[in-house]
Write a structure and sequence with these properties.
CATH class of chain B: Alpha Beta
Oligomer: heterodimer
Strand content of chain A: 15-25%
Number of helices of chain B: 4
CATH architecture of chain B: 3-Layer(aba) Sandwich
Largest sheet of chain B: 5 strands, mixed
CATH topology of chain B: Rossmann fold
Radius of gyration of chain B: 14 Å
CATH class of chain A: Mainly Alpha
Order of helices and strands of chain A: EEEHHHHHHEEHEEEHEEEHHHEEEHHE
Largest interface: A-B, 39 and 23 residues
Distance between the termini of chain A: 12 Å
């Protein structure tokens, strides 16, 4: 390869990242000058769209932001609204909410592991090519996704934009027999999930250790999914209501998106599976903990390539939790609790498959939304992804352009950037 | 999972995203109009979900907004994809970029994956409508809104066989 300066490669469409955005890498001589991930953020639109609407509308409206994680958007929304209205929902309704969210974790992680991420490790350009050689494996992934969807359809009414969710609970609660009908599917899915952990644990992982501060929810006694307070590896611990005191979003020159950073912290931070695992591994339920140990995951995981193992372990965790909830389920007396409007502000956080999703709503006395804030995981991770790409590219500048491009795509896919959460049309340009 | 004679119409898209709402708009128009037994399914176009939606169908019709070359907004595209085992010797996927839809991980990927896995429905018809404006919060652009009648009619004609 000849030595080049300021050379621009043809733009390469970044398929298999769910979403659309652009990555630009500028190299001068033998030094990476700049890495820019341009993302376009639907939440900004939705924040404006929500103002003036009723406090009962955000769960339905925000579920349209992301086709892959509608439950995450619904959950952070109703948690924020209920907090503003002074209502806490517990008991069977809260259990159903966790169960629904488990369905989304299984479906989303199965999609990412099998159709998006695994082809990178096995040397295929995509899932279609991988399926030609590994049909039973891809079928296993589709079965897992189907199992996740089955939970979402049973609890949420449907898998895409679940329609049974409302502020205060659900429009209708499933019967015991509705849920026990899922048990067979979920037990079979557990076998698939355990095989998935073994399968991905056998991949070869490039060496890359990150020192980002990790940020995840904490739900002492259980692995955090549908609620919790916020904790970081640096020792912070705060409630959802304090999120905007700790997580600052700033405009940066190159992007329409805001960059998130922790207050008083110079470095980057990361949310998502690696952070969840690193901060909460001790709360994994038994089968998931055993699978993690067998897969060689230690007490923490800081290699983003190994996030595929963490996702696989989290699929086991979600199925284990789902089965536990179903077996203990007694239908609530009412499918929802009353949530009368009042003036005030509420904050909600939950663990979307891609990381912590925060929402805040401000209401007038009639419950009309006068302010809204949505901070999705992918935009929180944007600075960390850029930082990691810079570290990753620097020692690999002797690679051919095509190979470097391919490897950068893999690095980005490690973070499972979300389709509508944060990115809009991703192309990759390397300028040398 | 095979249900002989099962027919499904799948509307792909997001009705909060301008012309991407064409699929949901067609589904809304078909509700109550299609013959009993025809399943109407809303989809985000994600391939695994599409494979599930058309699993075992004898006829699946997918409606999606597309961005296919320089065609003006509202232009209708139609592609028929036959499962190779249903019609031996047929070319399963036409070389028609218009069927790839407006979703990067969408109908085109789903068809490719279904082919490899032997999960194409016996007969799959993809209706694409050229979109012009995919802005969040926008409604259908006028040319696309004007073409919905013809698109609904085309789907109904396909259902009638």
């Amino acid at each position: 390869m000849t030595h080049r300066h300021e050379r621009t490669l043809a733009a390469v469409g970044l398929a298999r990242v769910e979403g659309e955005g652009a990555l630009r890498v500028r190299v001068s001589g033998d030094r990476v000058e700049d890495v820019r991930l341009d993302i376009y953020e639907p939440p900004r639109f939705f924040e404006a769209f929500l103002r003036g609407r009723s406090y009962r509308e955000p769960p339905d409206i925000t579920s349209r932001i992301c086709g892959i994680c509608p439950v995450a958007y619904q959950t952070s929304a109703f948690l924020a609204i209920e907090a503003a209205c002074g209502v806490q929902v517990d008991g069977p309704i809260a259990d159903l909410r966790r169960l629904l969210y488990c369905g989304e974790w299984v479906a989303s992680h199965a999609l990412h592991i099998y159709l998006l991420h695994a082809p990178d490790f096995l040397g295929y350009p995509g899932a279609i090519e991988m399926a030609r050689d590994h049909r039973p494996i891809v079928e296993r992934g589709l079965r897992l996704r189907r199992a996740g969807n089955a939970i979402m359809e049973t609890i949420g009414g449907r898998a895409v934009h679940p329609v049974n969710v409302q502020v205060g609970g659900f429009y209708s609660a499933p019967s015991r027999s509705d849920l026990s009908g899922l048990t067979g599917v979920l037990r079979a899915a557990m076998d698939d999930a355990l095989e998935t952990v073994s399968w991905v644990a056998g991949f070869e992982f490039p060496e890359l250790t990150l020192d980002h501060e990790m940020l995840a929810l904490s739900q002492p006694g259980s692995y955090p999914i549908e609620r919790g307070t916020v904790a970081t590896s640096g020792g912070r611990a705060f409630a959802a209501a304090e999120f905007e005191d700790h997580v600052l979003e700033e405009q940066v020159a190159h992007s329409t998106a805001l960059h998130a950073r922790l207050s008083g912290h110079a470095g980057t931070y990361l949310t998502g599976p690696l952070a969840r695992y690193t901060l909460n591994a001790r709360w994994l339920p038994p089968a998931a903990a055993a699978a993690a140990a067998a897969a060689g995951l230690g007490e923490t995981c800081r290699n983003p390539f190994r996030s595929i193992i963490v996702r696989a372990v989290e699929v086991v965790c979600a199925l284990e939790e789902a089965i536990r909830i179903i077996e203990a389920y007694e239908p609530p007396a009412a499918a929802s609790v009353p949530v009368p409007p009042r003036a005030g502000t509420g904050h909600g956080v939950s663990e979307a498959p891609r990381g912590v999703l925060y929402q805040r709503y401000d209401f007038d006395p009639a419950g009309t939304i006068v302010g809204a804030r949505i901070v999705p995981p992918t935009s929180q991770n944007q600075a960390a992804i850029e930082h990691d790409l810079r570290s990753f590219i620097q020692p690999r500048l002797d690679l051919s352009d095509d190979e470097l491009t391919r490897q950068c795509e893999q690095v980005i896919r490690n973070y499972d950037p979300c389709i509508s959460c944060a990115t809009h049309f991703l192309t990759l340009r390397i300028e040398r | 999972m095979t249900e002989p004679g099962r027919t499904v119409v799948i509307g792909v898209g997001n009705d909060f995203r301008g012309d991407d709402g064409a699929g949901p708009a067609v589904l809304a128009r078909l509700a109550g109009v299609v013959p009993a037994g025809v399943h109407l399914v809303a989809s985000d176009g994600e391939p695994a979900n599409l494979l599930m939606a058309w699993d075992g169908a004898s006829l699946a019709i997918v409606v999606d907004a597309v961005q296919a070359g320089p065609a003006p907004p509202g232009t209708l595209h139609r592609a028929v994809i036959a499962a190779p085992d249903a019609l031996p010797g047929s070319a399963a996927v036409p070389e028609d970029a218009s069927i790839t839809g407006s979703h990067q991980l969408g109908v085109g990927s789903a068809i490719g994956l279904a082919q490899v896995l032997g999960r194409l429905p016996a007969r799959l018809i993809v209706h694409g409508i050229q979109g012009g404006d995919f802005t969040l919060g926008a409604s259908l652009s006028q040319p696309v809104a004007d073409a919905i009648d013809d698109l609904v009619a085309a789907v109904i004609a396909d259902l009638a066989g």
